[in-house]
Design brief:
The protein is an alpha/beta fold. It is about 45% helix and about 15% strand. Strands 2-1-3-4 form a four-stranded parallel beta sheet. It is globular and about 50 Å long.
Amino acid sequence: RNYWMLVAIALWFAYKWLSSKRIKAKLPELRERGAIFVDVRSPAEYSSGSAPGTVNYPLQEISEHIKKISKSTPVVLCCASGTRSGIAKMTLKKNGFKEVYNIGTWTNFLN
């Protein structure tokens, strides 16, 4: 039987869960260091619920907004599931940002 696909999916979700847990543990330190917390969901999604202290820079507009952020500032990204924030992370890294984190879903900022 071909269980490899199920194993791969399970490992991917485990990785995402562990990664977001690690970043959540770093949030106090990152806040202290002046990190910016960016929600890359659409304005409609953001207005229906968001974490305090986040700014809304929709993924489609991220290239415009990154000009406002110092490349030495830590950036923590979120969205609805972690997919769009993963894309935004790649964009920021490609543009010279050194310290970029994908916390996954925006609700991870609430715990």
